[in-house]
Amino acid sequence: FGAMALKADESVKLFLSIGLDEKTATTTINNPKVTANLTAVIHEAGVTDGCDRTTGNLLYTVATKHHSNLLLHRPTLFSYIVSSKIKTPAQLDAAVSFLDNHAAEDFKLDEFEEACGVGVEVSVEDIEKAAGEVFEENKKTISEQRYRTNVGQLLGHVRKSLPWADPKIVKDVIDRKMYELLGERTAADNEKPTKKKEKKEKPAAKAEEKKAAVEATPEPSEEELNPYSIFPQPEQNLMVHTEVFYSDGSVLKCNNKKEVLDKHLKVTGGKVYTRFPPEPNGYLHIGHAKAMFVDFGLAKERGGCCYLRYDDTNPEAEKKEYINHIEEIVNWMGWEPFKITYTSDYFQELYDLAVELIRRGHAYVDHQFTPHPHAGDKWCIYPSYDFAHCTVDSLENITHSLCTLEFETRRASYYWLLHSLDLYMPYVWEYSRLNITNTVMSKRKLNYIVTNNHVDGWDDPRLLTLAGLRRRGVTPTAINAFVRGMGITRSDGSMIHVSRLEHHIREEFNKTAPRTMVVLNPLKVVITNLESDKVMELDAKRWPDAQNDDPSAFYKVPFSGVVYIDQSDFRMKDSKDYYGLAPGKSVLLRYIEKDTSTLFLQGVLHWVAESSPGKEPIKVEVRLFEKLFNSENPAELNDDWLTDINPHSKVVLSDAYAVSILKDAAVGDRFQFERLGYFAVDKDSEPGKLVFNRTVTLRDSYGKGGK
């Protein structure tokens, strides 16, 4: 698909001829997509020999802001712009809105002209009158605030009554009336407002102020409340989806015909149909969690259906193991497929369509004599991704085909193929992919470090595969909250700091993980002023805000003359910034009542005691995980990315001590080890030897600089 192309200097010359300033023209040619769009618009509008600046600016707006819309009716729009019947940005916006609602339909020109103010002339006298009324209504406020008055609001009031007024003239009239009312600016007008030092208020006044501040908090946007609000309804799928440029200069404009859409809506009942289409060539990672949130989430929010469709067109890379894993992990993430399908289920239909495409002179065939993990050895040819993806979307009556931005370049081939086969066309929308620091998200790289034993399998807790996150102790709730916080935007996929994910994990675990005590590197401490054979049972809190009258909020912990503290909590040499134990220094032990006669003690240590004289506490293994890669973006290192693996990303402590309540913990149970972090029981646990994975530390760095 060859778009029109001009040399850079020719493009600049062309753009200058329509009235663009030199800076805008030279900036535009640095963006190949905008350059191609604007070049096509200039040719379609028939102004290759130039035009006035007003017309040129409107055409530039169409090329940069409205390029994907209204393609069917662009000749009409351009004729109105070039003839100056549409001559203001407000008129253009109104025209675009009208045509967008009539994307594949005929419409009456008189209705179009009325909608966008064609022929409506707004005189300076009209603007003067409207502005005078606005100033009269707001005279008191303007006099008080003087040149700090929000002029934008005044402009908005005038434009509301005169929507087709020239905005430049409106601004000039407002500025003149401000001067007539207020006179010259004074030095005070140019000063920044200073905050007055207020007297200390009474608590009641502060409460009122806090209440007022809460009430003044801006309402969240509709998109923040509902990230799926950006997507159109199925019955609106008549818009022109894209345009395909041919090397001969012709342009194909792709959209559904009304009878095709009506047939589709009859089959679907007007419901939203989406699909989550992973290729079964590896384990799913956290990027797929975002895709699930988009695909399954939209269908759920609209009361529709979402397929789990295995995109199994490459048998050399696919395994039954991956197919089983994907279905299981989708369910674990909390999503329920409407139906599970395989692209290979449609091989016969795809074959028939391929034959038809060849008959029409539009296709070729690729041979593989490879057996298929789902379809067996029935087929010796397999469809390419570009052929299968769009056709199966159409065959399954998908309403919204949603994918990440790297597939945007395939949009033309997607619609060209459906158009060439006279098939229904879904609405396609691309969103930014999820990129997280200190890891790799490429399936190829993940497969490499798994198969070459740089990690301990696809579910290694250091990986951001969903299986690895689950084993680490992360819940679907935390993952989905993190993904929802990203939104469904088309912004360039910038790196998201891993601390942002950790923030959501802590948010949940702080409310759901019971507290307990474990000592990672035990140091034996003998309490000399306690009888050696005495064992007491103390009440320890499962939850920090536990009420004394709630027995379930406490657990019993033995306390004896021999306790174990962590080695890091003892030093031979004390210092002011150290709150642990040292010679000649006293500390508190958690849950031991303080003697009121003692001095103030800053250090409070966690501990584990012998449950009876000479009997060691429960021994457990604890695995501490750090970031797998030292660099935030190891992919930038190209061929040297493996050298960036952190050799200290996994530390195993085999001789940690735990309080007795943990002896009955089951695989997947989660706890907060006081002062240490949040931990989960690993699947390697055996009777008498529990293994805990550290899910996340207690400290939250997201609020302190995490992106």
Written account of the structure:
- This protein is α/β, with parallel strands linked by helices and 707 residues long.
- Strands 10-21-22-23-19-20-11 form a 7-stranded mixed sheet, with helices on one face. A 3-stranded parallel sheet has the order 3-4-5.
- Helix 20 links the parallel strand 6 and strand 7.
- Helix 8 crosses helix 10 and helix 10 crosses helix 11.
- The longest helix has 16 residues.
- It is globular.
Detail the topology: elements first, then pairings.
Elements: H1 8-17, H2 22-28, H3 32-45, H4 53-65, H5 74-82, H6 89-100, H7 109-115, H8 124-137, H9 139-145, H10 151-161, H11 167-182, H12 187-190, H13 203-216, H14 222-225, E1 242-245, E2 251-254, H15 258-268, E3 273-276, H16 286-301, E4 305-310, H17 320-332, E5 339-342, H18 347-359, H19 385-395, E6 400-404, H20 411-420, E7 427-431, E8 435-436, H21 443-451, H22 466-472, H23 476-486, E9 495-496, H24 498-512, E10 515-516, E11 518-519, E12 522-526, E13 535-541, E14 554-560, E15 562-566, E16 588-589, E17 604-605, E18 608-609, E19 618-625, E20 650-658, E21 670-673, E22 677-681, E23 691-696
Parallel strand pairs: 3-4, 4-5, 6-7, 8-9, 10-21, 16-17, 19-23
Antiparallel strand pairs: 1-2, 11-20, 12-15, 13-14, 15-18, 19-20, 21-22, 22-23
Structural class: alpha/beta
Q: How many H/I helical runs? A: 24
Strand order of the largest sheet: 10-21-22-23-19-20-11
Radius of gyration: 34 Å
* Unreliable stretches covering 5 or more consecutive residues: 1-5, 195-202, 212-217, 702-707
Indicate the percent of residues in helices: 25-40%
The averaged pLDDT comes out at 86
In terms of DSSP E residues, the strand content is 5-15%
Protein name: glutamine--tRNA ligase
Catalytic activity: tRNA(Gln) + L-glutamine + ATP = L-glutaminyl-tRNA(Gln) + AMP + diphosphate
Domain tRNA synthetases class I (E and Q) anti-codon binding: 604-682
Family: Belongs to the class-I aminoacyl-tRNA synthetase family.
